[in-house]
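Continuing from yesterday's entry. The apo prediction looked reasonable, so today I'm repeating it with nicotinamide-adenine-dinucleotide included to see how the binding region is handled. Same sequence as before; SMILES copied from the compound registry.
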Amino acid sequence: MIIGVPKEIKNNENRVAIIPEKAAMLSEQNHNILIESNAGTGSGYSDKDYVNSGCTIISNVEEIYKNAELITKVKEPLKSEYKYLNKKSILFTFLHLAANKNLLMNLLKSEMTSIAYEAVTKNGKTFPLLKPMSEIAGKLAPQIAANFLQKQYGGPGLLIGGTSNIKPLNISIIGAGIVGYNAAIISNGMGANVTVFDIDNNKLLNIKNYDKKIKTQFSSKGNLAKYLPSSHIIINGVYIPGSKTPKVIDESIQKLIKKDTLIIDVAIDQGGGVANLNSTSHDKPIVKLNNFYGYAVPNIPSIVPKTASQALNGTTHKYIELIANNGFESCLINNIEILNAVNTYKGKLTSKPVSKSLNLNYYSLDKIII
Ligand SMILES: NC(=O)c1ccc[n+]([C@@H]2O[C@H](COP(=O)([O-])OP(=O)(O)OC[C@H]3O[C@@H](n4cnc5c(N)ncnc54)[C@H](O)[C@@H]3O)[C@@H](O)[C@H]2O)c1
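Holo prediction written out below.
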């Protein structure tokens, strides 16, 4: 199969969809990889590394979209890339369409078939391609907060762990999934007073089992209104698979939050859980909103691109290989994980949660391909 790897163009996006080690494994199986020149540079991989892995370097990205049967990316195509969407190739990348109607309409118009990394599920329960990025974003969130709180970065000059005579800071984490769990263990390790909220008691139990010192609460509006006002840092990692993030920090809760609190909305890629807080970028990650600060970068792992590219491609490789070795149509019939992750198919919206979030017609892929 001809596999295309465009260079990522989102702000400060340094990840690459296929690393040389995995490219070599695909080349050995006679697949032909077309990679855009310098696509791997941000992650520490040169064009020469890719040539040595059997890839062909292409300087004009349009050629990649025109010739590749499978396009692998990290982030969703941006507006300037919409012109390359086409019905001949399959797109495999993070899409987060529930929060991006414009991209969805362009995928439907171009009739491009797309598979969303975040929708690939194992046993219908876990998200193997989202997981490594969520682990990274969860682990980075307290680290980012710690930096921001320092005076030289414009913060209020506070130390998360406190001292022997000064209390540590309060960190509240909403969502006890992969982002929340990782943010909790790092915050706890930094010495913070950590409280985690979720609607799933098993997820809360999981965190308690890590360290009983971490406090847990059922995530209700009442409990958030009770506990968030004393937080110095709030990290949001709420996710309802495929859907737009619910606004767990709505305007009424925002009024209770104390001055200078930093809210890190990791779930911004799915629309975000903080009312009136829009996406920010690594160039200007933090904005002031009323009396608090908001951080809403949708590609947090790109600040550790080498780790992130290796971790991402470490999990995507299996699926790229499956599609390349068996052909996409055969994977639809024989692989439920791929079938369930198809968001658009030949001009039709095939994701139920996306259709619900955007109030658009849904087509069951099962019925279309029979
Ligand atoms: N910004 C970034 O760079 C970045 C990176 C990785 C992941 N993410 C995003 O972070 C989000 C979380 O990802 P994840 O892998 O941790 O998901 P996950 O499914 O592992 O966890 C989500 C958790 O949210 C909980 N939840 C649902 N509704 C809730 C509510 N009302 N209150 C409290 N908890 C609630 C669920 O029970 C679950 O435990 C996703 O939107 C994901 O796309 C963003």
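Comparison notes:
- The pocket of nicotinamide-adenine-dinucleotide is lined by residues 118, 130, 133-134, 137, 174-180, 197-200, 203, 219, 237-240, 246, 248, 266-270, 297-301 (CB under 6 Å).
- The longest strand covers residues 193-198.
Will overlay with the apo model tomorrow.
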